[in-house]
């Protein structure tokens, strides 16, 4: 039986949702991403074989960066638990567990890197930028360069973040002061599992086939994201919600032109209900019906939205409101009992 070393550090990293900037962020645009309170948990275990190619890549990347410090570590790998990313029990269809599109692979990469750093005597609390650089590099290599890295940023830093990758180079990550302020965020899902890499690949095919049209359709996505960031900074709730609504419409138009199912019928219905109530709802991430986000300035409106979409559920159609909250902690070390030792500010 394999066991951990006495005092072997346990680390945790959260999942994420995109609020705006999907696809545009792959072309140097701005995205806003929020860490959510579904977490992956990791621990370095001597003599353990990697549980996946991603874990192997993250451990290998970290050991290479450690140089001489790596020789002091015993052979082994990191055990990662991502069960918290499964769909809620009453939303999971019979015959299997469905993972929600909340960035479990990014959280896995962050945990694998964090566990190795902690074992090497480099606390993630004091080496967060290093942890991000290593986790983002490993995750990007595992994805074949397909992703933006924003999901890894959420896993490492937590909270509400502005993310850009200018010219495809080094990511720029900024915490948004004050987060979402008084706005109310809801996260929802239909019962559709979506491959992010497949969605991105299909969009890349469209971009290569019709580059001018792709650029023209992506421009409103980029502009809506910039509006969102500016209005959030000025605490203009009405404009922030309008910007999210514009972002959803722009994503829908992009997906329709590219024949990539970003906005599914249940999500289109959610957007219509949110608009009726003075809010906004849209797909989050690559789209396809997996995860969506809704934003409201008024708590009563958010509650009405949740009640209405719940009432309209019909079999496998419709959407489910997920029990999620913003997670301010990024990658962090846990106490033996599971409590957090340090908090991201």
Polypeptide structure, described:
The chain has 345 residues and is an alpha+beta fold. It has 2 domains: 10-177 and 326-334, Ribosomal Protein S5, domain 2 (2-Layer Sandwich), CATH 3.30.230.10; 184-321, Alpha-Beta Plaits (2-Layer Sandwich). Helix content is 40%, strand content 18%. It has helices at 53-66, 104-119, 128-142, 150-157, 196-209, 211-233, 237-258, 265-276, 299-311; strands at residues 10-20, 31-46, 76-81, 160-164, 172-175, 184-189, 280-283, 292-296, 320-321, 332-334. The strands form 2 sheets. Strands 1, 2, 3, 4, 5 and 10 form a 6-stranded antiparallel β-sheet that branches. Strands 7-8-6-9 form a 4-stranded antiparallel β-sheet. Strand 4 and strand 5 (172-175) form a beta hairpin.
Keywords:
6-stranded antiparallel beta sheet; 10 strands; globular; alpha+beta; disordered C terminus; Alpha-Beta Plaits; 345 residues; 4-stranded antiparallel beta sheet; Ribosomal Protein S5, domain 2
The general outline is: globular
How would you classify the helix and strand content by structural class?
alpha+beta
- Summed up, the domain count is 2
Distance between the termini: 39 Å
Proportion of residues in β-strands? 15-25%
- According to CATH, the fold-level topology of the largest domain is Ribosomal Protein S5, domain 2
Low-confidence stretches: 89-95, 337-345
Cα radius of gyration in angstroms = 20 Å
Number of helical regions: 9
Would you identify the CATH architecture of the largest domain?
A: 2-Layer Sandwich
* Biggest sheet layout: 6 strands, antiparallel
| Helix and strand run | EEHEHHHEEEHHHHEEHEE
CATH class call of the largest domain: Alpha Beta
